[in-house]
Amino acid sequence: MTREQMIDVLEDYCNRNICDSCEFCDDCEKGMVFSEIVDEKLKDYVSRIDEKNTDKESQNVCELVGKRTEQVKVLKKATKIYYPDAMKDVLPLKEFTKNITDKGYKVELTKDNVVSDTIVNIYKEVEMKE
Asked: What is the rounded CA–CA span in Å between residue 119 and residue 109?
């Protein structure tokens, strides 16, 4: 990195940061003239800025990776079946729903008072699309 590039990096850093929170506050005298600083000091300042930025970037990457790995599952309605009350003698409702849930489906039971049937809503579990 050339001397001019190092000076540009330091000037950008100083323009983005408040002097009180600046890492170079002890060395700086409010408006340090970078062109008057020797090359070794410039390299030291630039390397400290680069280390600080690299640490922040690596932390951000780790946070994102942890959040992306988890899949979200939702229920999608597959069908609706009317289970008549007269059917209870042939195949009990408990056994009927157990057969459905054994195949991996989720079941919701509701009562229809008009027809006096039990409504069996069947859902399948799917991954949520973004």
From this structure: 6
**42 in Cβ contact with 7 (< 8 Å):** yes
pTM of the prediction? 0.45
Could you read off the pLDDT tens digit of each residue along the chain, which spans 130 residues? 788 888 888 778 777 766 655 666 556 655 667 777 788 887 887 887 776 665 554 444 444 444 445 678 899 999 999 998 889 899 999 999 999 999 999 999 998 778 788 999 999 999 887 6
Q: How many other CB atoms are there within 10 angstroms of residue 63's CB atom?
A: 10
Report the distance separating Cα 50 and Cα 55, nearest Å: 9
